[in-house]
Write a structure and sequence with these properties.
Layout: H1 2-9, E1 12-17, E2 20-25, H2 28-36, E3 42-43, H3 52-55, H4 63-71, E4 77-81, H5 82-98, H6 101-120, H7 135-161, H8 168-174, H9 185-216, H10 218-235, H11 241-245, H12 248-260, E5 267-271, E6 275-278, E7 284-287, E8 292-295, H13 297-300, H14 338-355, E9 356-360, E10 366-368, E11 375-377, E12 381-386
Helix pairs in contact: 4-5, 4-14, 5-6, 5-9, 6-7, 7-9, 8-9, 9-10, 9-12, 9-14, 10-12
Length: 390
């Protein structure tokens, strides 16, 4: 729809969405207010109500160990579905970092399966009809209830024992609101689920796209490999936060994959006041109070007047201005998990590059548009063979 309407209607246009009007702000010149406006003017709460059945009402690091442990189970050579492997790995790393010792040591398989049902219950139709009696929604609601039971037992056990763990779960248990009220068990559960969504889902998708692109374009694969060789000459086999931060080539490979395939296709706000925007050709549009205001990373990231050859994978391209690259949002509601996402994906791909020869032998993947978080369609089949980079 955006591809069809943008050439005719320009960077600001309104569409009817049942009983609501949705106004799109596409170019960075007009979307700056979308990202910079205070919550009193443009808020997220009303337009993201479809998250409530998943995260719960009133709610919205061990990576290296997990990566090494996971890939130690691969054989000397073989064939794998990279998408499936990375989904499993990243939910493991995210749960180790976010959900706490009890989940990762005792309940990981249960939580992983329930999380899968939650994930599949977030459909495009859920935006408008969050509680429609669909099979996917029923599975989502059952999974949410079982997760509540699991986390309630863990929280209760921690409180009774008086023991304190050094993890995010403990931070949520001990956190308080500004008025001094303690977080409830239901809210802590919602926070954990939201954190796992942020820490796992988009990272596994981006990891898969990154791998598919670097295996397709040998020049970028070679550049990323050369970077790992230089780092190993400098630091040996060691991987830590500082060494990961030196991986600029790999960083740009990830960033470009994310430009082409941002998992969130739309960002939305509810307008609580009238405002206006001015396009790059000088036209001014008045946006009335009551509209849903939206922008689209998947479309904005491919605007040809900002990105030359926008559909091409070119990790060396980046010099875009403010609000031109919005895969992690921006402004007041920029994604706080961005550094963690890059840390996870760099840790995974630095290990793969250093320890395996890799070949993509299935067709280059297509985009799966059937979920709220846009994913990779079908299998991404890869041949691997162990080797030691030197």
């Amino acid at each position: 729809m955006l591809r069809d309407e943008y050439p005719n209607l320009g960077s600001v246009f309104t569409v009817n969405l049942l009983h609501k009007k949705m106004t799109f702000l596409i170019d960075p010149e007009v979307s700056s207010h979308f990202f910079k406006a205070p919550e009193s003017d443009l808020s997220q709460q009303e337009v993201y109500q479809f998250n409530v059945p998943t995260f719960g009402p009133r709610v919205v690091f061990d990576v290296d160990y997990s990566v090494r442990f996971y890939f130690s189970k691969w054989g000397e050579s073989g064939e794998v579905d990279l998408k499936d492997e990375l989904q499993r790995l990243i939910i493991l790393t995210a749960s180790r970092c976010l959900l706490g010792r009890e989940v990762r040591d005792q309940l990981f398989d249960d939580v992983s399966a329930l999380f899968h049902d939650l994930d599949n219950g977030m459909l495009p139709i859920s935006v408008l009809f969050s509680y429609l009696p669909l099979p996917a929604h029923r599975r989502r609601d059952r999974a949410r209830g079982k997760l509540s039971e699991i986390f309630s037992k863990i929280i209760g056990s921690r409180k009774r024992s008086g023991k304190s763990e050094n993890d995010m779960l403990q931070c949520f248990i001990e956190s308080k609101y500004k008025d001094g009220r303690q977080t409830t068990e239901s809210e802590v559960t919602g926070l954990l689920i939201a954190a796992l969504f942020a820490g796992q889902h988009t990272s596994s998708i981006t990891s898969t796209w990154t791998g598919a692109y670097v295996m397709k374009y040998k020049e970028h694969f070679s550049a990323a490999l050369d970077e790992q060789k230089k780092l190993m000459e400098k630091h040996g086999d060691k991987i830590d936060h500082d060494i990961l931060s030196e991986m600029d080539v790999l960083y740009r490979c990830i960033k470009e994959a994310l430009r082409l395939h941002p998992p969130l296709i739309m960002l939305m706000r509810a307008s609580h006041s009238d405002f206006n925007v001015t396009t790059r050709d000088g036209k001014t549009y008045d946006i009335p109070k009551g509209h849903i205001v939206a922008t689209s990373p998947v479309f904005a990231n491919r605007l040809p007047h900002i990105f030359k050859n926008p559909d091409a994978y070119d990790p060396d391209r980046f010099s875009a201005g403010a609000f031109s690259y919005i895969s992690f949002g921006g402004g007041r509601h920029g994604c706080l998990g961005e550094p963690f996402a890059y840390l996870q994906i760099k840790a995974i791909w630095s290990h793969l590059l250093r320890n395996f020869e890799l070949e993509l032998f299935s067709p280059f993947p297509e985009i799966d548009w059937n979920a709220m978080v846009v994913s990779v369609k079908g299998n991404v089949m890869v041949r691997y063979k162990r080797r030691q980079l030197s």
